[in-house]
Structures are given as C-alpha cells and as structure tokens.
Amino acid sequence: MSVTPSAPQARTPWRAVVGGSIGNLVEWYDWFVYASFATYFASAFFPKGNDTAQLLNTAGIFAVGFFMRPVGGWLLGRFADRRGRKAALTLTVTLMSASALLIAIAPTYDQVGYFGAGVLLVARLLQGLSVGGEYAASATYLTEASQPGRRGFVSSFQYVSMTAGQLIGLGLLIVLQRTMSDGSLHSYGWRIPFIVGAVAAAVVFWLRRNLLETEVYEEAGAHRESERGTIAELLRHRKEAALVIALTMGGTVAYYTYTTYLTKYLSNTAGLSKSDASLVSFCALFVFMLLQPLAGALSDRIGRRPLLITFGVGSMLATVPIMTALSHTDSFGGALLLSLAALVVVTGYTSINAVVKAELFPTHVRALGVALPYALANALFGGTAEYVALWFKNAGAESGFYWYVSGCAAVSLIVYLTMRETRDTSLTKAPADQPATSERAARTPV
What we know:
Distance between the termini: 22 Å
Shape: globular
Helix content: over 70%
Order of helices and strands: HHHHHHHHHHHHHHHHHHHHH
Structural class: mainly alpha
Oligomer: single chain
Mean pLDDT: 83
Largest sheet: none
Radius of gyration: 22 Å
Strand content: under 5%
C-alpha cells in the first residue's frame, strides 16, 4: 500500500515550486512591458501634439500601480490567511489576466476620447492589487510547501521567476523592435505583449487550480476565524512587521537600482548605446537568475543572517565604487563585470528575503505579515529608487544617489546584525506526535 502514492510524490514537489512561483514571472513580465512599451502606446490614449505630456500621463498611471500594492498586500494577504494560499494564488493570477487583457483591448483616444485612458487606469489598479498580493501569497506558499531543510532553496525560485519575467519581456521587446516597423509598433504592435501576458496568466491559472493547499495552513485550521489575517492580529506582531520594513529597505533600493534603473543609467550616464545597455542588463540578469537557488541552498546550510549581513556590508561599502566605476565605463565587458559584481551582492538579499519574512510570522497572519509591510517598504523605497536617482542627476549631484543606496543598506545592516536567525523556525504549532494521514504522505513537500 505504501508504494501507491510514489508517483504523485515524485511529481508534486516541483509542481508546487512551479505553481507557487510562476505567477511572479507573469507579474514582472507585465510590469516590465508596460514601462518598456509606454513610448509606443502613450500616443494611443492621450491627445497628440505633446509627446512629453503623453509619456507623463502614462507614467502617472504606471505610478498608481505602486500605490495600489500596499492595498493589494492588505486585501489579498488577509484573503490568503482566511481562505488559504491556493485560493489567494488563484485570485492574484485572475487579476493579472484581467489587467493584461484590458490593456490589450483598450480603445484609443481617437476612438472614444479619454475613456481609453480610463480603461488603462483600471487595468493598472488591478495589476497593482495583484502584485501586492502575489508576493506574499507565493512567499508563504513556497515556504510552507517545503521541508525545513530546503525552505531557502525552494523560496529562492520566487526571484528566479521574477527575473525570468523581466528577461522574457526584454527579449520580446528586442524581437518586436527588430521585426516590426516603428509605425506598426505605435499603431498596433504594442498590444502584442499584453495579449501574451493575458494568455500566460490564463495558463498559470490552470496550473494553480491543481495545486494542493499547504499542510501548515491546514494544521492551523483550528485557529479562530475572526483572528486570521486581521490588522489587529498583525499589530500583535508589530515588531516583526517593523522588521520586515527595515530589512526590505536596503534590499529593495539596491534591487531596483541594479535591475530596472541599470539600463537607463548605462545609457544616460555611462554613455553606452541603448542596445549595448540593454544587452548588458539582459546578460547580467540571466546570471543573477541562476545564482538565486545556489544562494538559497547555501542559506539552508549556514543560515539566513550570514547572507543578509554579506549583502548589507557589500552594498554599504561597494555601491559608491561600483556606481562610480560604471559611470566611467565605456566598454560592454567592463559594464557587464561591474553589473554582475553588484548583482552578486544583491543576491544575498533577493535569494532569501521571502523565506525570512515568512519565517517571522505564525501561520494565521503569515501572508498579511509578509504582504503589507513589504508592500509599504517597496512603495516607499523600491518604487521611488529611479525617481530619486534621476532627481540627484537633474540636480547635478548624481553621486548623491550612490550614497543614498549605501545609507539604506546601512540601515538594513543594523537590522541583520541584531535580528534572530530564522532558518530553524517551526512554521506550525501542531503537536509533534500528530499522525500523518495517507493523503499527507502522498503529497510530501519539497
């Protein structure tokens, strides 16, 4: 009888990894293509005559997505704690698909006036809600669905999928730019990446419908319904919530600096061509993606704090020299090596930040505890990183931004040095002698 579940037992773990993390791929793909293709669709939704005004309007709608992320973190984090991780993962991907489809079919200004811009705004609101909840839902699911000795490795696939989404978006941009005329891209070509995003989200929805709920969540089912995922319950863990904000601060600023802002920095400051700057970012992000599972597995052996501390020290001390050197580089190879050096440092944060946050909270408030503080920190520091960088550049003091990134890392470093190690934290308070059912045996986690 014991051999009956062997086949599903071999398949279920990687199904959980893929189902739990792949939504991040679609999220970041959508996030990237909106920003990248804005120059092509801005004229479709706003009056012609002022290109800068058109871009500012689309950028304003883009920014709304960041403001909605804390709202999504609160609503969907609460939903995940009250209705389950699987239900939340399915809901976030539904919102993803809807937002991408709305942009793909949105009517233009010439057809319906500002109504098209209104559709674009609604789509970004939905996407902001989705992104705000997706991070926490996938972080808690991946953490809870894995064995204690492999939680760092498994949860690292969250950033593997996030980076893959950016790479796919960048790759599609390059392909469309080389296969379509500029006029065609402005006319209808910009809709293609959003159609792709809607279809991809539908595929992810199908994958997630077949996921199993985590055992950790089911074992916490006896907890009072009224306390699950509430702000009142989160406030009882306000120290942990504040910890999430503080440990995220330095990491999210560094991450956005060396991923989304890097291409613009290499082009506008270092003077590389746009094509070379894009290729540097693509190659660096690809290597960065491969590093995540390695660092996650390392944290399972030596603990989370050593990696976080390495990131904190490295980012605090190396940011100014690396950014200064990047500003003077004039070769593809030099820019790539410096970018890789920076991303290796950032890996100490990205590979394990999701699992560390999930390990700080009890099951009944874990998703909300990860979602809301992270979304707030991300909106305040990650979402504004590019704006702060450009503000310093416009003021003629670009090096001030380097010190800003270092300062944020220094604040987080203090937290890393004083926080407790979370690697061996038990995610459940279920009795140790609780017998495993045959269903649980059949779905042994990663």
